[in-house]
Amino acid sequence: MLTPEARRELEKEQYRMVGSHSAVKTCHWTKKMMKSEGGCYKLTFYGIMSHQCMQMTTSISCANRCTFCWRGYKAPVSKEWKWDVDEPDMILEKSQEAHHKLITGYKGNKKVKPHMFDATRTVRHVALSLTGEPITYPRMNELIAKFHAKKISTFLVTNAQYPEQIKNLSPITQLYVSVDAPNKKLLKKIDVPLFTDFWERANLSLDYLAQKKQRTTIRLTMVKGVNMVEPENYAALIRKGDPDFIEVKGYMFVGASRQRLEKSNMPFHEDVLAFTKELTAYLPEYDLVTEHKPSRVVLLAKKKFFREGRWWTWIDFPTFFELDASGKGFGTEEYMKPTPKTGFTEETADVRSRDCDCVAAH
What is the DSSP string of 34-101? Predict the structure, then answer.
């Protein structure tokens, strides 16, 4: 799948290949939380413990060449799976091994407390969103089952070009679909898709997303001067997908995207918040919940998550695993948990990371 040159480039950037098509890299926020410097937005929004999260992908290939993506054009692209299919057991085992090796050096870091490093050794969450299109891995449902059997929650991000894989996906902790533009012409310009029927695929993906019973999210990546337009058309696509949550996130000027975009295309957090407020005018069933300023991201949730005078956007992980293991159908509202703190304040960025000791086991 990878040329030797592309592999060397990834390894230089601290990626570790797993088997023939998977990869692992330690997240910036995993490192920060180990040093008690705050957690990622998934901590603020959903209760993920950033220091116990493994960032990986089951496919480094993708069917898009998104202009805002960090990936260079040496990275593989394909519409179909053309490679060997690695065993799920191997991917699970070797991914954790690679993750542990990448964080080993932090054991002696004076900023990392021993109990934090010890907790980091136990992976509790996997973010299947590192690079490429992870949902194309042909044995994804088997791998998901193995993660859940080990009490590892699953957050998977897909680019809305593989509707049948979305339709056939087993229950996961939270499913993300990216919506990168409000209309067909702009989506082609931004995502540079390989599929000629990319717009039809995106719309069918949203139709299938709406049928999911577990937690779903639509993510908008905002590129200033490019796709921060037509909030009414974004809203129409969001209503089609009917997600539980909407994340409006600013583009970050990093990696190979710097060859395609300008630093001025990276919106300030205030820009993201302003566009989010425009969007909510067309989505009365959603409301603003909270924000994470360092990541330039704002969370919207369906109003059904506001109960007893507070938001319930956090995840009850033990209950999720019990429901999933039962083999019975279950829904979003059966494993939600009160959000400890919400709002739009200067403290939002690192909220709750100071209290990670008491909630690290969920």
Answer: HTTS---HHHHHH---GGGEEEEES-S-BSB--TT-S--TTS-B-SS--S----HHHHHHHHHHHHHH
Element at 24 (helix H, strand E): strand 22-24
Kindly list the distances between the CA atom of residue 68 and the CA atoms of 116, 134, 353, 357, in Å, as whole numbers in the listed order.
34, 18, 29, 36
Domains annotated on the chain, with CATH = 4-353 (3.20.20.70)
Residue 352 scores a pLDDT above 60: no
Amino acid, res. 331: G
Its pTM surpasses 0.85? yes
Task: Report the SS3 class of residue 225.
Answer: coil
Question: Which residue has tokens 């739009």?
Answer: 344
| DSSP 8-state code for residue 169 | P
Distance CA 277, CA 260 (A): 28
| Rounded average pLDDT over 183-204 | 97
Amino acid at residue number 175: L
Structure confidence by residue, pLDDT tens digits, 239-273: 999 999 999 999 998 888 888 989 999 999 999 99
DSSP-derived secondary structure for 179-216: ---SSHHHHHHHH-BS-TTHHHHHHHHHHHHTT--S-E
Tokens of 104: 């080993």
Report helix angle 140-149 to 88-103, nearest 10: 60
Per-residue DSSP letter, 193: B
Euclidean distance between CA atoms 252 and 273, whole angstroms? 15
Both tokens of residue 26?
A: 């330690």
Q: How confident is the model at residue 105 (pLDDT cuts 50, 70, 90)?
A: confident
Residue 90 near residue 78, CB atoms below 8 Å: no
**Whether residue 106 has pLDDT greater than 60:** yes
